[in-house]
């Protein structure tokens, strides 16, 4: 009986592995939610002969025009039936059914959108192939909102570039394009009533955001020699809306308010609290002319964009000027508002009422929750997930776009190998791991999560080629997060598909990142074994990982990684990717210490910032080193007064070294400490200073940097006090991951 049971389990496991392998070979992104692969294949080298049923003439013409751009159409080709089934019962208008058998291909759907998505799956199945497998797909999206955001304010991008991205969005079944075209670095949409917005506020002398930010942040007339900038005419915007709609993508415009508006206030300073240009980034909410301006702008925007939602920003507004402004304070008093947070909410609610009167809905970043949420507003949650959770709990809809998983301006590989980025670390596997429905929500509440969106902010993305490099292939991972049910996802399966997709994208002229050619390290403590378990992984597929633990460089004879490496004291692991006997990329070395302070007590003389507690009070002595992102849950963050902790080893003992690793990443305002002071004590009262270590790195050094600050020698003590003095930059952070004691 046991032999039969073991055999049955083996066959089930083999069947599952075979199924995953087969679905991976289909190379479909996003992965359909239901796939049945048959035996046999259909020859498609002569293309397809299209037959339609129940399609209106305009719908048929539109689909055929789009088909011709991707598939060979021929009267001698295999039959491709496109069937509109308006009476079919399905949960989503975007669902479709696709069948490939000896008769040909049949795609049926409830709507034109469903047919369009079925065609995209067929295009992927048949791309560069003479045969496609017999298959039956029943598919529909997990979320109705599947978005991608592009910041055209900080660095202007052309209309042709946006069309090119919309083509790829549609191919991977993304359906919302969030167009961020107003912000401090430039106003990019023509407003006929206010010509100075594009005549002056769209132009500057500095070609990069970084240069503009550090050079006075001024604007110049459009005809100034050497001026950098650009804007979209209303006709161009309408053209993009039409182009996107043909591909079942809705364009959502964003008009920033009340903050991020310095470009507006530079040319219309009477709308600021100071009445002077270049003195404020926030509209004066106490000034009725502010609302006249905003409503006039929105009226023209509504006429261009038919989208249900109009995005109003609402993020990162400083309230400093409102506190000093007589008009704003009068508004607070007249309207019975409690404070400046409610003053901002007053503006959002008033703008929402205006939008609702025009048949539109308000969408804003999660700061619109502050001071009370407008009655019908939808929240786009970017500062983590809490804003979305709070919105849903109060009965509002939310779209999840937390920076930790969805901000594609972060580094996607080792910062030392990448162009300068704003900071952080967001590899494709982490994007793929995201579940936009927080576990704390009840099933009924989760229905208010409309979907998910990737955001591309352009502070450090100065060119169209660089934008694509940051966007792809991470956008493909986001597309599968948005479409495919979690139980149908598999990172191993997706990794093979995305590796296959990259050369296809490049052949179409997209400047993609080719995935990291370095080994990734992860590790956890194994308290039962008093060890650290080290795991190695890769984004590339297919490759092998070879490693050493003796300080040597891996070669073709080094062990192939198969299982986690157990570290019971200190081990330096060096690992590298190999394709056969050929080494790929650079060997990466990491040291792991199951050191003497693990499991001891820590006293925080300065509290850790509540936004970055990492693993809590044991985080600095748990053996877990941080990765390349300060937000990965293993870096502790401190502000203002720096870091000051005392470790209690439990008894007097010999100490030979004390080291801690810090991060510097000036994009998110993280700097190395100015100086570190290490002291010892027997009684936690009288401390003897052991060492002072000063930073040797400039606070202007770009990139994500790491530096150890420590001491080596011989001493005896029970208590170790480790103090990191901040460098004095107002608002700067100090981030540390582990204090290693031997």
Explain this structure to me?
Strand 28 (675-681) and strand 29 (688-694) form a beta hairpin. It is globular and about 85 Å long. It contains 19 helices and 31 strands. It has an eight-stranded parallel β-barrel with strand order 7-8-13-14-15-16-17-18, surrounded by six helices. Strands 25, 26, 27, 28, 29, 30 and 31 form a seven-stranded antiparallel beta sheet that branches. A six-stranded mixed beta sheet has the order 1-6-4-5-3-2, covered by helices on one side. With 742 residues, the chain is an alpha/beta fold. 45% of the residues are buried. The model is unreliable at 6-18 (pLDDT under 50).
Summarize the structure.
The chain has 742 residues and is of the alpha/beta class.
Helix-strand blueprint:
Blueprint: H1 2-25, E1 35-43, E2 48-53, H2 57-68, E3 78-84, E4 96-101, E5 104-109, H3 112-126, E6 131-139, E7 145-151, H4 159-171, E8 176-180, E9 182-183, E10 186-187, H5 196-199, E11 203-204, H6 209-213, E12 228-229, H7 234-246, E13 250-257, H8 262-267, H9 288-304, E14 309-313, H10 320-324, H11 326-334, H12 340-357, E15 361-365, E16 378-381, H13 386-393, E17 398-400, H14 403-406, H15 428-433, H16 443-446, E18 449-456, H17 464-471, H18 474-483, H19 491-507, E19 520-526, E20 531-537, E21 544-548, E22 565-567, E23 570-579, E24 582-593, E25 601-604, E26 636-639, E27 643-665, E28 675-681, E29 688-694, E30 704-725, E31 733-741
Parallel strand pairs: 2-3, 3-5, 7-8, 7-18, 8-13, 13-14, 14-15, 15-16, 16-17, 17-18
Antiparallel strand pairs: 1-6, 4-5, 4-6, 9-10, 11-12, 19-20, 20-22, 21-23, 23-24, 25-27, 26-31, 27-30, 27-31, 28-29, 28-30
Helix pairs in contact: 1-19, 4-7, 9-12
């Amino acid at each position: 009986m046991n032999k039969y049971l073991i055999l049955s389990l083996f066959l089930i496991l083999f069947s599952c592995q075979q199924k995953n392998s087969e679905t991976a070979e289909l190379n479909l992104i996003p992965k359909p939610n239901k796939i049945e692969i048959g035996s046999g294949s259909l020859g498609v080298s002569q293309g397809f002969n299209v037959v339609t049923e129940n399609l209106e003439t305009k719908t048929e013409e539109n689909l055929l025009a789009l088909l011709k751009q991707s598939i060979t159409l021929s009267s001698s080709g295999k039959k491709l039936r496109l069937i509109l089934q308006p009476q079919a019962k399905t949960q989503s208008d975007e669902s479709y059914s696709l069948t490939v058998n000896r008769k040909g291909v049949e795609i049926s759907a409830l709507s034109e959108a469903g047919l369009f998505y079925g065609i995209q799956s067929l295009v992927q199945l048949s791309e560069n192939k003479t045969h496609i497998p017999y298959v039956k797909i029943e598919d529909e999206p997990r979320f109705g909102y599947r978005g991608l955001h592009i910041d055209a304010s900080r660095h202007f991008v052309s209309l042709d570039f946006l069309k090119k991205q919309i083509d790829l969005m549609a191919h991977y079944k993304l359906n919302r394009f969030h167009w961020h075209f107003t912000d401090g670095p430039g106003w990019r949409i023509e407003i006929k009533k206010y010509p100075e917005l594009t005549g002056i506020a769209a132009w500057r002398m500095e070609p990069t955001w970084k240069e503009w930010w550090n050079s006075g942040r001024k604007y110049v007339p459009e005809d100034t020699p050497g001026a950098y900038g650009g804007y979209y005419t209303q006709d161009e915007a309408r053209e993009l809306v039409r182009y996107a709609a043909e591909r079942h993508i809705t364009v959502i415009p964003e008009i920033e308010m009340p903050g991020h508006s310095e470009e507006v206030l530079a040319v219309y300073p009477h709308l600021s609290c100071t009445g002077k240009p270049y003195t404020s980034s926030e509209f004066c909410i106490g000034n009725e002319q502010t609302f006249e301006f905003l409503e006039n702008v929105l009226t023209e925007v509504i006429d261009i964009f038919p989208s249900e939602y109009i995005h109003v920003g609402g993020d990162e507004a400083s309230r400093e000027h409102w506190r000093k402004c007589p008009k704003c304070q009068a508004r607070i008093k007249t309207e019975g508002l409690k404070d400046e947070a409610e003053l901002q909410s007053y503006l959002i609610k008033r703008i929402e009422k205006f939008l609702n009167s025009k048949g539109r809905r308000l969408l804003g970043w999660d700061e619109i929750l502050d001071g009370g949420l407008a009655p019908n507003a939808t929240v786009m949650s970017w500062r983590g997930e809490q804003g979305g959770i709070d919105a849903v709990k109060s009965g509002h809809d939310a779209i999840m776009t937390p920076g930790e998983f969805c901000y594609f301006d972060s580094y996607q590989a080792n910062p030392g190998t990448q162009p300068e980025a704003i900071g952080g670390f967001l590899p494709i596997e982490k994007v793929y791991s995201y579940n936009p429905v927080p576990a704390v929500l009840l099933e009924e509440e989760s229905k208010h999560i409309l979907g998910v969106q990737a955001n591309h902010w352009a502070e450090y993305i100065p060119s169209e080629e660089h934008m694509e490099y940051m966007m792809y292939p991470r956008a493909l991972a986001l597309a599968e997060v948005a479409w495919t049910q979690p139980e149908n996802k598999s990172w191993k399966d997706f990794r093979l598909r995305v590796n296959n997709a990259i050369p296809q994208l490049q052949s179409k002229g997209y400047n993609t990142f080719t995935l990291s050619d370095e080994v990734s390290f992860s590790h956890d403590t194994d308290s039962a074994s008093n060890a650290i378990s080290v795991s190695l992984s890769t984004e590339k597929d297919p490759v092998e990982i070879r490693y050493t633990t003796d300080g040597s460089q891996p070669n073709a004879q080094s062990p192939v990684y198969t299982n986690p490496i157990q570290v019971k004291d200190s081990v330096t692991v060096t690992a590298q990717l190999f394709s056969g006997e050929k080494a790929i990329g650079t060997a990466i070395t990491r040291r792991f210490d199951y050191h003497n302070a693990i499991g001891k007590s820590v006293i925080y003389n300065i509290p850790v910032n509540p936004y970055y507690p990492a693993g809590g009070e044991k985080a600095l002595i748990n053996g877990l080193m941080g990765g390349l992102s300060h937000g990965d849950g293993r870096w502790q963050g401190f502000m203002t007064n720096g870091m000051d902790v005392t470790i209690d080893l439990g008894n007097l003992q010999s100490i030979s070294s004390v080291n801690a690793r810090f991060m510097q990443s000036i994009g998110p305002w993280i700097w190395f400490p100015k100086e570190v002071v290490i002291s010892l004590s027997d009684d936690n009262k009288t401390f003897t200073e052991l060492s002072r270590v000063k930073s040797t790195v400039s606070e202007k050094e770009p990139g994500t940097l790491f530096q150890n600050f420590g001491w080596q020698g011989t001493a005896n003590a029970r208590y170790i006090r480790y103090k990191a003095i901040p460098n004095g930059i107002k608002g700067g952070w100090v981030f540390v991951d582990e204090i290693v004691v031997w």
